[in-house]
Amino acid sequence: MKLISHLLAQNEQHIQRLIQSRHPILSAAAAHLFQAGGKRIRPTFVLLISQAIGTIHQSQQRLAEITEMIHTASLLHDDVVDEASKRRGIDTVNTRFSNRIAVLAGDFLFAQSSWYLANLNHLQVVKFISKLISDLAEGEIRQTSTQFYTQFELAAYIEKSFYKTASLLACSGKATCMLADSVPETMGQSMYLFGQHLGLAFQIMDDVLDITGEISQMGKAIGADFITGNLTAPLLFALTQQKGLVTLLERECCYTQDANQVRQFVLATYAIEQAKDLAFEHVQAAIACLASLTPSEAKDALFDLAMNTISRQR
């Protein structure tokens, strides 16, 4: 994004310096996923909000880096839990190194992000962002504890998705406002809700692409969610239309052909369209939260960020 591309480049360089450790293996593991690239949605989100509400402060730039470190740490742990072999088209850290190294690298990034968070010298922001780290763990626990549970409801899926994905955007949106000069509390709440709805839309579309995407675009195995029993929005919608799905999921996709059959069942229903509609509802809710911002290039970019969520291919 041209508007903040120079700041994102600075963030990349600073993060690379931040993750240096005295142990070369730990440093290599922590750097591996960063070097694979990524969409950098979270730092982009923080920097655009910073610019939309005023001048970008150094503390807000640090917050952009911290959110990306927290996100990457959670990915390292998620890949271990999910036994994932690919992430962004390259071997996951647990595949290239080991589960133990991947977990330690994730812990290292969480610790580093907490240290730099404390250095912001803003107690309320420290409390707010620290809480979302526990939210990430809560989301992962909820997902793991409901694997292949065919009675899982859409409301529970939305709540789990908030903890697992949307909480980071919601909390960082509000924290960005807290670090600004003379920004009313109502603005912070608006940016919290903007992040919440944007995060939910992003997660729902991620779950859609897990079924409809191409491996070359996604950089990971297609169908990974239902292979591991993660019941996503498309699957939940399809369960109401294809009763045969219940049998496949309750036997935990134990046969080789089960995963492909689940995918075909979902594609034969209106589940993908229903999930996309749900994502669009959250995008519309997110855009409504931008009404409190004064017109600017940054506001337009936030609008585009929300709209691109439902048109992305990876």
UniProtKB/TrEMBL annotation:
<dbReference type="InterPro" id="IPR008949">
    <property type="entry name" value="Isoprenoid_synthase_dom_sf"/>
</dbReference>
<dbReference type="GO" id="GO:0046872">
    <property type="term" value="F:metal ion binding"/>
</dbReference>
<keyword id="KW-0808">Transferase</keyword>
<dbReference type="GO" id="GO:0004659">
    <property type="term" value="F:prenyltransferase activity"/>
</dbReference>
<keyword id="KW-0934">Plastid</keyword>
<comment type="similarity">
    <text>Belongs to the FPP/GGPP synthase family.</text>
</comment>
<keyword id="KW-0479">Metal-binding</keyword>
<dbReference type="Pfam" id="PF00348">
    <property type="entry name" value="polyprenyl_synt"/>
</dbReference>
<keyword id="KW-0150">Chloroplast</keyword>
<dbReference type="GO" id="GO:0008299">
    <property type="term" value="P:isoprenoid biosynthetic process"/>
</dbReference>
<keyword id="KW-0414">Isoprene biosynthesis</keyword>
<protein>
    <submittedName>
        <fullName>Prenyl transferase</fullName>
    </submittedName>
</protein>
<dbReference type="InterPro" id="IPR000092">
    <property type="entry name" value="Polyprenyl_synt"/>
</dbReference>
<keyword id="KW-0460">Magnesium</keyword>
<dbReference type="GO" id="GO:1901663">
    <property type="term" value="P:quinone biosynthetic process"/>
</dbReference>
<dbReference type="InterPro" id="IPR033749">
    <property type="entry name" value="Polyprenyl_synt_CS"/>
</dbReference>
